[in-house]
Write a structure and sequence with these properties.
Elements lengths: L6 E9 L4 H13 L4 E6 L3 E3 L9 E10 L3 H14 L14 E7 L4 E3 L2 E3 L8 H10 L4 E2 L3 E2 L1 H4 L7 E3 L2
Antiparallel strand pairs: 1-4, 1-5, 2-4, 3-4, 3-10, 6-7, 8-9
């Protein structure tokens, strides 16, 4: 039996409660430890204001993976990492200790309960588009085309790249 080729996947990382830098660093390590998965790159960290929410500023990044995990299996692994870092979901857009979003899974388009791929709002968020552009400047969304074309629409969103 031949092994399936690894898919190029992008995961958004965010936190705005507790030790955000330490939490994102630990989440990157947890991504590195996922089975059938290789962490290939991590963007710089960015500070951003909450979008459609209240609370402290977020620390954000994007990680690039190569994985043989199926999308739902990867999603469940990401949710387990969130829970290990104290993630609670009391209401939509609540502040969080860790948020891991499956942004893109190769060129797959899925619409299943609990999982939509690509992430339905990734093209509307500077805190996603800027780190994605850092990792993959020519990245193409399977439905919307080049993601670079969408960045101009998010320039009004407060975002600071951290050293």
């Amino acid at each position: 039996m031949t092994e399936l080729p690894a898919e190029r996947v992008f995961v958004g990382l965010g936190a705005n409660l507790g030790d955000t830098h330490g939490t994102l660093a630990a989440a990157v390590q947890a991504l590195r430890d996922l089975p059938a998965t290789a962490l290939t790159a991590v963007s710089s960290f960015y500070r951003s204001a909450p979008v459609e929410a209240i609370g402290p500023d977020y620390l954000n990044a994007v990680a690039e993976l190569k994985t043989r995990l199926e999308p739902l299996d990867l999603l469940h692994a990401l949710q387990a990492i969130e829970q290990a870092h104290g993630r609670h979901r009391p209401y939509r857009h609540a502040p969080r200790t860790l948020d891991l979003d499956l942004l893109l899974y190769g060129q797959r388009v899925l619409d299943q309960p609990g999982l939509k791929l690509p992430h339905p709002r990734l093209h509307q968020r500077a805190f996603v588009l800027e780190p994605l552009a850092q990792l993959a400047p020519g990245l193409v969304h399977p439905q919307l085309g080049p993601l670079a074309d969408w960045r101009v629409q998010t320039t009004h969103q407060a975002l600071e790249r951290l050293p």
